[in-house]
Amino acid sequence: MDFSSILQDAKTTISEFKSQNNDGIVIIRWATATGKSRLSVELSEFFDIEVISSDSRQIFRKMDIGTDKISAEIRRKIPHHQIDIVNPDEQYTAGQWKQAVDQQMDTILKKGKTPFIVGGTGLYIDSVYKNFSMPE
Questions:
Q1: Residue among 126, 106, 110, 39 nearest 78 (CA)
Q2: In the beta sheet, which residues pair with residue 118?
């Protein structure tokens, strides 16, 4: 399946979902290097979104090589959260991530926007999707 087909399918699916769940969140999760970030950027042309990264490496400042962080230019156009938030020598747990993301989702929804959780760290995504209770 080519990218334009994936984009069209995603637009249709999200439009249908949003018509029934105005305050719903969208999760884009696939394997590494499959175009998740590109898809979220393309979808931002059709939906008023803010992106929450669910990548356990993009949280670290100065770790740009190998993490495929979205460019600063795009981040100025489309707000992205959970990128460059801690130094590499600091601890940051899945519990801290979930606590921050719960607040960020509420804030994004209050603005009338749709939170897009984008990335491949399953524990991060599941902590929100399955509403895990996690200690900080």
A1: 39
A2: 28, 53
Strands across the sheet with 26-28, in order? 26-28, 114-118, 49-53, 80-81
The model carries a pTM of 0.94
In the 3-class helix/strand/coil scheme, how is the chain assigned residue by residue?
CCHHHHHHHHHHHHHHHHHHCCCCCEEECCCCCCCHHHHHHHHCCCCCEEEEECCCCCCECCCCCCCCCCCHHHHHHCCEECCCCECCCCCCCHHHHHHHHHHHHHHHHHCCCEEEEECCCHHHHHHHHCCCCCCC
What is the tens place of the pLDDT at every residue in 89-107? 999 999 999 999 999 999 9
Q: Are 68 and 37 in contact (CB under 8 A)?
A: yes
Q: How confident is the model at residue 134 (pLDDT cuts 50, 70, 90)?
A: confident
